[in-house]
Structure formats: C-alpha cells, structure tokens
Amino acid sequence: MRPKPAGPQTADPRRRIWRTSVLLVVLVACSLALLLRPRPGRTTLTYRIGTVDPRFHLSRAEFAQAIEQAATIWRTPVPRGLFRLDPRGDIVINLVYDQRQETLDLLKRMGQAITKTQGSLGDMMAKFEAVKAEYELKQSALQTDFAAYEAKVQAFNAETEALRQRGGVTEREARRLGAEREALQASQAALRTRDQELAETRTQLASRVDTVNQAVAGARTQEASYKKAGKRLGGEFDEGEYVRRFGRRSITIYCYANERVLVRVLAHELGHALGIEHASDPRAIMYPQILSDSWELAPEDLAAIKAICGVP
C-alpha cells in the first residue's frame, strides 16, 4: 500500500503565544507613546538656536532675545510656560540669509537713496523757486522803472522840442535841461546794469532748470529700479517656516524688515509649533501674511492659544 500523504502540520503553540505577546507589547508601547507624547500647550516646548547667518548683523544673544520676546507674546495670556531655551531643545531655530533678505536689504538701501535724492531734489526746487521769485520781482520792478524812464525821456524830448520851436532857451533853462539829461543818462545806465543782472539770473535759472530736470530723471530711474527689485520678491513670500518631519522640528527665519518684524515672524512660527493654524483676521499674529510689526494678539489668536492650553 502507498503511504497516505501527510496532513497540514500544526504550528507550535509556544511560538504562536510568543508572537502574540510581542505584538501586544508593541501595541501597548505605541499606545503609551501616543498618550505620553508631549502635547503643545500642555507642556513646555524646548528650543535651541541653530544657524545664525552673520549677514543679518545680529548676534546669537540678540537672536535669542528676539525669540524670548516672541515666546512672551504667547506666554502672557496663559498661566504656564510654553517655551524654554535648552541647549538640547527639541525645536531648532535658524536664521538663514537667502535672496529674500538680500532683496529686502537692496530695497532698503535703494529706498534710503531715493529718500536722499528726493530731499536733495526738494532743496533744489526750493532754491530754484526762491531765485525765480526774486527774479520775477526784480523784473517787474525793472519794467516799472523802465516805463517811468521812458515817460521822463518823452517829457524831456517834448519840452526840448517846444523850447526849440519857441526860438531858443535861456541859460537857466539850458542848465536845467542839461541836469535832466545827465539824470536820464544815469537812469539809463542803471537800468541797463539791472537788465544785465537779470539776464545773468535768467541764465542761472535755465541752468537750474536743467539740473532739476536731470535730478528728476535720476529719481525716476531710481524708482524704476526700486520697483524692478521689488518684483524679485513676488506678490507673497514666506518670511519663515515651521517644519516637522521625521520626528524633527525646526523654525527657519529667512527675512525681516526690522527687529520688531523679526519678533512677529518668530511669534507666528512659534504659534505653529504650538499647533495653531493660520487665522483669517489680518490683524492676527497667525494671519498668513505679515502686515504689521504689532506684537499684540488678536481675538482669534487669543481664542486659539486658550483652546490649545485648555484655558477658559
């Protein structure tokens, strides 16, 4: 007889129990890890300072102070500490210089140059207007005096002609007419001198007009360059970002207009570290765009942090 084929072998009960036990241990460990994992707002988040690019001209101590100020913004409305600086902190905070800050720095320098040019242009225009006003006043006075001189000349000529037609002049009249002629000649010389001075002033005004026009053209070129540089940033850009990946957390700041804005950007990213999402109120720290340098929490910010921390 042929031997009967063997039936399915039964697994070792001890091995099956061992595998089940290992699985239970893993499940329990994962559950405990989830339960015991620090929750933002329920415990203190630790942070440490990573890269601080020297091109920001900000020391590590100054950067640390800015972070502390940003943390205080969130700490104020809740009765517990939320952030703590720790050399081995979980969140590494970096200050990284890239094209965004480079463009902001360029725009700042260009803005200062434009302001200086506008100031110089303003001074130039003020001086031009002052010289022009003085010229117009002197020109008006010259025209009035010249009209008076012409009237005196006509009167003198009329009198001289009348005396000639009468048949001659007396010695006394001759002396008087001679004195009047000399006075008229002196007036004519003075009027010519004043006219020459006004001609020089007209030349100066024309030169000033050219200088002002050149300055205006230069200012327009500066403004065009400023707008062109501003387009490099685009309509919207991230001043910073909070990243949580593979169990590691980081905050990286890329650009800021001034130190007050730096604190606000840091506060925004620390808010994300706490688990707060973007707000819809443009006044809020957690609004997607940085629209001001205010450090005040908006009602939407307050509601979010209190909900995170379980504060009524």
For the structure shown, list the relevant keywords.
rod-shaped; Collagenase (Catalytic Domain); alpha/beta; 9% strand; 312 residues; disordered N terminus; 6 helices
Strand order of the largest sheet: 2-1-3-5-4
Q: What is the rounded distance between the termini?
A: 85 Å
Please compute the radius of gyration using only Cα atoms: 44 Å
State the total count of DSSP E strands.
5
* Total domain count: 2
What are the secondary-structure elements, in order, as H or E? HEHEEHHEEHH
Runs in which pLDDT lies below 50 for 5 or more consecutive residues are: 1-10, 25-38
Could you say which overall geometry the principal axes of the C-alpha atoms support? rod-shaped
Q: Determine the strand fraction and express it as a percent band.
A: 5-15%
Tell me the number of helical segments per DSSP (H or I, 4 or more residues long): 6
